[in-house]
Amino acid sequence: MDFEISYVKDKAYFIIKTRGETTPVDIKKSLEMVFGHQNWLDGASILYDNRLEDLTKLTNHEVKMISDIFIKYNNKLSNSKVAVVMPEDLAFGFARVWEAHTEGDSTFKTRVFRGIEDACAWMEEE
What angle do CA 64, 70, 72 make, to 5 degrees? Predict the structure, then answer.
């Protein structure tokens, strides 16, 4: 998976725009890069824009591994919002499984969206 990280300064959240095949290693790398960003403060929010991502080779086990990665970083994400944009049916289903695995063991909020506009609106809510 390739990804670009940008920071929405006036709204104080990060966007990780992904493309290509995703693996748990890629997700861990993207989170570590965000945490190392000059504007990162623990509790900042992240929007994953996965509209160009390919999840056709991802397994249920790997979805659970991705959830475990997010839970591992719970202290950094505490009180954050993590939005995931997944417009395709298969990807949306995987993201909902990720959300179900993650939300019970985390102190950050998660939400899965089909469209970027709805995700951005949620990120910008107080």
Answer: 100
